[in-house]
């Protein structure tokens, strides 16, 4: 994978992870208002966005496994950090929404 493709992949991970995190945070806010059906849809949307980001991450891992080693740069590290934080946010949002649902 050339450097421009690696940069594009990193940006795609950041984009989808950011969308997923935003959806998860919005889901918490609507659950706080008692709008659980909307919250569930937002959590589903968050999951879909994170799946898209994960596909790009998986492609990088597969290339690495095939021996196509890449130079690690700060943008790629940032994209991975962004994805992991977004996944954690989504998981916690699910739990927070369940707590609101129990009220």
Describe this structure in words.
With 103 residues, this protein is an all-alpha fold. It has one domain: Up-down Bundle (Methane Monooxygenase Hydroxylase, Chain G, domain 1). The protein is 86% helix and 0% strand. It has 3 helices and no strands. The protein has helices at residues 3-32, 36-65, 74-102. The radius of gyration is 16 Å and the shape is elongated. The active site is at residue 78. InterPro entries: PTS_IIA_lac/cel, PTS_IIA_lac/cel_sf.
Feature tags:
103 residues; Methane Monooxygenase Hydroxylase, Chain G, domain 1; elongated; magnesium; single chain; transferase; 3 helices
> N-to-C SSE series?
HHH
The overall number of domains is 1
Number of helices: 3
Unreliable runs, pLDDT <50, ≥5 residues?
none
Q: Under the CATH scheme, which class?
A: Mainly Alpha
Under CATH, the topology is which?
Answer: Methane Monooxygenase Hydroxylase, Chain G, domain 1
Report how far the terminal alpha carbons are from each other: 51 Å
Shape: elongated
Q: What CATH architecture label applies?
A: Up-down Bundle
Oligomer: single chain
Overall pLDDT confidence: 95
Radius of gyration: 16 Å
| Estimated helix fraction | over 70%
Question: By helix and strand content, what is the structural category?
Answer: mainly alpha
Strand content: under 5%
Characterize the largest beta sheet: strand count, sense, and whether it forms a barrel: none
CATH superfamily: Phosphotransferase system, lactose/cellobiose-type IIA subunit
| DSSP strand count | 0
Active site: 78
InterPro entries: PTS_IIA_lac/cel, PTS_IIA_lac/cel_sf
GO molecular function: metal ion binding; transferase activity
Keywords: Magnesium, Metal-binding, Phosphotransferase system, Sugar transport, Transferase, Transport
């Amino acid at each position: 994978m050339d450097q421009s493709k690696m940069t594009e992949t990193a940006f795609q991970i950041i984009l989808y992870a950011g969308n997923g995190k935003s959806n998860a945070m919005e889901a918490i806010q609507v659950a706080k208002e008692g709008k659980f059906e909307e919250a569930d849809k937002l959590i589903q949307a968050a999951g879909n966005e994170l799946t898209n980001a994960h596909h790009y991450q998986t492609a990088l891992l597969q290339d690495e496994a095939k021996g196509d080693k890449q130079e690690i740069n700060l943008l790629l590290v940032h994209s991975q950090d962004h994805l992991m934080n977004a996944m954690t946010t989504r998981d916690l949002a699910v739990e927070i929404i369940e707590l609101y649902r129990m009220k």
